[in-house]
Amino acid sequence: MAGLLLAGKSAIITGGVTGIGRAIALGFLRQGAAVTVNHLDDDASKRHFQSLKIEAPQDSRLLSVTGDIGKRQTGVQLVEAAIQAHGGLDCLVANAGVSQFRDFLTLDEETFEAHLHTNIRGTFWTTQAAANQMKKQGRGGSIIGVSSISAHLGGAQQVHYTPTKAAVLSMMQSQACALGKYGIRANALLPGTTRTQLAAKDLASKEKLEYLERRTPLGRVADPEDMAGAAIFLASDLSKFVSGAEITVDGGLSISLQ
């Protein structure tokens, strides 16, 4: 384990069995961390966790905890499970999120509430539970909120979504202020368009994909694995004086006019 960036650290990743969360979980495991992932209590999510176990390095310390991340008690139970299994908590990645493209003028209440519930409440309650444990331990820690470049950009079919990602960014900035005295760092990761289940329908459009590739200076949309390096940096001691920051991982999309 010597030389690994996260050796000896315990991390929680919400939404950790698919997409960006899964890629971060694998990245953390490969860097020596013990990882606890949260996912829904359904058959598909359980299958994703089993496949994650197969893909993980041999002898990985990997645990799953099911539950509705938008409920405060789920965050508490998640932290308690990580402590019991891995002896403490050094990092939480608030990754779980939903994103559905919808027309603003006809948006239904159920879709709106689902975005608030998972993206905002889920981030708030899990990070609160993690911060309380990190304060109790007295050795600091790292909180990473997965926001989006949508925190800064508008989208005609994302009026219900972009504010939730702006909220995650704002939450990390305010948590950096609230938790710094305990040595706890809080930062935001802002992915661009990424090949995940949430984006699959949008990227199925050849015109949309070609437009994004043309506009992005690096010439492609992101793969989930592209987010892992930035998350590892924020979780590790390499970023021990980085707090309240936002790291954009979008291949230059958000600064390009092309």
UniProtKB/TrEMBL annotation:
InterPro entries: NAD(P)-bd_dom_sf (IPR036291), SDR_fam (IPR002347). It comes from the Eukaryota. Pfam families: adh_short_C2 (PF13561). Gene3D superfamilies: NAD(P)-binding Rossmann-like Domain. Keywords: Oxidoreductase. Belongs to the short-chain dehydrogenases/reductases (SDR) family. This is Uncharacterized protein. It comes from Zasmidium cellare (Wine cellar mold).
